[in-house]
Design brief:
It comes from Oceanibaculum pacificum. The protein is α/β, with parallel strands linked by helices. The chain is about 35% helix and about 15% strand. It has 2 domains: about 140 residues, 3-Layer(aba) Sandwich (Rossmann fold); about 170 residues, Rossmann fold, CATH 3.40.50. The chain has 10 helices and 12 strands.
């Protein structure tokens, strides 16, 4: 089989009624179509995957996303993949937070891609597992880097405990600098932090907010759902790191490790901080030199387009799955 002429089914790992990240599978599909225009790419919900597989007769089935939910059963799609002679791959995007649930696919998968590098060492050695971060989608996330007319600092995401503590500590610095901080997402209604508002932002709007803010906060989460066995600490940046870069954002990342250096260059493509105090110092640099924000954003966008789109991830999947 030629690597540029194949049939691929991309399906979600969770039913759409319970899948908050269903839109991501379309970004993956877009990346494959961009990378392999001669291939036939089908994108399906979990619910419709078996019917689609029987009609398409794919060379590969790629299950994408969380596989944690009890209602998700991959036995039938695995049986269909074997019947068609197809490779069955899983691209898991919630490692390590749901790692304990991954055992349900060990006997089914031909190949696994994990979003988190730190989780690699905890998979069975007999299982082909590869690190593959999530990415950005040019068709959805790309924005011109032209001006910064939005808030001085922007963040969108759920209020996990570590985020609540961080923004609570950052708020006095914002006030002292006379800077505007906008924090939106679910769970912020009782945060008591100036600038924090409980609201849901549509995915289609988020890149515009990234592109117009002077700075964008990049901070991970500390809440595990099924990570008790090994208590793995996450190492790989989440998808919004790459989505914001596609939008041309000037990101300041609260970094717990050095893996970010593999994706973006500090000082020229991203700024790094350890805590609220060092974050405020980086933020002040942007407030004093607003052109620096644009320079960071343009550099990050250029790097993201070259290396961190779903087209690049698609090429890596094909390279590993069909070799």
């Amino acid at each position: 089989m030629k690597r540029r002429n194949f049939k691929l089914l991309i399906m979600s790992g969770s039913p759409d009624s319970l899948n908050a990240n269903a839109s991501l599978r379309y970004y993956v599909g877009s990346g494959f179509r961009q990378a392999f225009p001669d291939a036939i790419i089908a994108v399906s919900s979990y619910e419709d995957s078996l019917r689609t597989a029987r009609e398409l007769k794919p060379d590969m089935v790629l299950v994408f996303g969380s596989i944690m939910l009890d209602g998700a059963d991959f036995g039938l799609i695995a049986e269909e993949a074997r019947h068609q002679g197809a490779v069955l791959g899983f691209w898991l995007h919630d490692d390590p937070y749901e790692f304990d649930m991954n055992a349900r696919i060990y006997d089914l998968a031909d190949i696994v891609f994990t979003n988190d590098r730190a989780s690699l060492d905890f998979y069975p050695p007999s299982l082909p597992v590869h690190h593959l971060p999530l990415a950005g989608c040019a068709a959805t996330h790309l924005r011109p880097v032209a001006s910064r007319g939005g808030p001085d600092m922007f963040f969108c995401g759920h209020r996990f405990d570590n985020r609540g503590r961080f923004f609570g500590a950052l708020a006095p610095y914002a006030k002292a600098m006379g800077a505007e901080m906008s924090v939106v997402g679910t769970g912020w209604e009782h945060a008591g932090i100036e600038g924090a508002v409980a609201m849901t932002v549509p995915n289609a709007v988020l890149p515009d907010l990234y592109a117009t803010a002077l700075g964008v906060v990049n901070i991970g989460r500390d809440q595990n759902l099924a990570n008790r066995r090994f208590a793995i600490r996450p190492s790989t940046p989440g998808p919004r790191t790459f989505e914001a870069a596609f939008a041309g954002a000037a990101q300041i990342m609260v970094a717990e490790g050095l893996e970010i250096l593999d994706y973006f260059e500090p000082e020229t493509e991203i700024l790094l901080a350890d805590d609220a105090e060092s974050f405020a110092a980086q933020w002040e640099r942007l407030l004093r030199d607003r052109d620096y924000s644009l320079t960071l954003g343009r550099n990050a966008q250029r790097r993201a387009l070259a290396e961190h789109g779903y087209d690049a991830r698609a090429r890596r999947i094909v390279e590993l799955a069909f070799r």
